[in-house]
Amino acid sequence: MSGKVVAVAGATGVVGRQMLLTLEARNFPVSRIKCLASARSLGRTVPFKGEEIPVEVLSEDSFEGVDIALFSAGGGTSKKFAPAAAGAGAVVIDNSSAWRMDPEVPLVVPEVNPEAIKTHKGIIANPNCSTIQMVVVLKPLHDAARIRRVVVSTYQAVSGAGSAAINELLEQSRALLSEQPYPPKVFPHQIAFNCIPQIPQSNAFEDNGYTNEEMKMVNETKKIIGDYSIAVTATTVRVPVLSGHSESVNVETEKKLTADEARALLSKAPGVVVEDDLPAQRYPLAVNAVGKYDTYVGRIREDISHPSALDMWIVSDNLLKGAALNAVQIAEQLL
Ligand code: 25A
Ligand code: L14
Fold this sequence. Notes:
Layout lengths: L3 E6 L4 H12 L4 E8 L7 E4 L2 E4 L1 E2 L10 E4 L3 H13 L3 E4 L28 E3 L3 H17 L1 E10 L6 H15 L34 H14 L5 E8 L6 E9 L5 H9 L4 E3 L11 H4 L5 E8 L6 E8 L3 H15 L1
Parallel strand pairs: 1-2, 1-6, 2-5, 6-7, 7-8, 9-10, 12-13
Antiparallel strand pairs: 3-4, 9-11, 11-14, 13-14
Bound molecules: 5'-O-monophosphoryladenylyl(2'->5')adenylyl(2'->5')adenosine and trans-cyclohexane-1,4-dicarboxylic acid.
């Protein structure tokens, strides 16, 4: 028998399903798959390689014989069950924020810091979606010109908040178009035809006035790039887009980079596609990035307000490079 025994915790969720599809699409060598979720999903099946796999309830005993456990069932679930999985001998690749800033746990984007994988002690953390797509673009610029400061604003799709959030955008849009009321349930305010400067939807704000999501971008960027001198500030915004996060990013460098130099560096960067043709009105768009593995960057220009800074627009599929694909790429590196 060849291949690995792979478990997916949160297999019925939007990210868990993408994990199964990505394992399949990239021909990851799986000898057996275990699909785990909460008791709410008992009796459901999820498709994998043409079969319907019955969902099992996640417990501490779920990981006997498991080689790789991909977790995407929320931070609380990861805190509770990842140590049991690692204790049973599995390597956990965790998509929640539970372990990301633990100094013992590597936080990995394979194009940026693959060497960190080797230091794991049973748990490897998958970064925040908005952070991943930003750092694959920042890393080559940092290597060439040393980044001093990053100012980012995000335009984040609702799929990041799970399947109930996707339903809310669709149902609320339909309701408002037919002049029916649709009070918000998942989001704190109306999301259809609106922008909400608060992510996540509950317990978002920290004492410094930033949201958790904003502070994840600040802290995770430094840890992944491995340079705590990079200054980062972020504003994260939920927009009525189903999938694909977009980001407006201003990057100040120690050595000046022209827009052409940045384009040349980025066109050689792994996992990055430069899409930047103004006469053709070509630049990255969320709707085009959905289903793609790459991160797209365009609107690259020299900041007219600063002697050594660039502005750019970065887009990727938040469920793929932002979550499932990055986790599967880490698993591929483990092989
Ligand atoms: O960290 P938090 O606050 O706990 O938030 C986690 C939420 O963020 C999503 C995920 O949504 C989850 O709701 N999420 C987490 N990381 C993400 C990332 N990086 C991310 N989204 C994007 N990027 P989700 O709906 O996509 O996935 C949830 C999955 O996790 C399983 N799960 C939850 N708690 C669990 C658990 N599994 C084991 N033990 C637990 N304690 C969850 O399984 C799903 O696979 P499920 O069985 O609970 O839900 C199956 C379907 O049921 C619906 N549903 C969701 N919540 C409720 C619900 N039904 C009734 N009541 C609810 N409260 C959904 O339709 C779901 O598909
Ligand atoms: O930290 O709601 O990975 O769009 C990913 C989804 C944070 C919230 C994470 C969202 C979460 C984000």
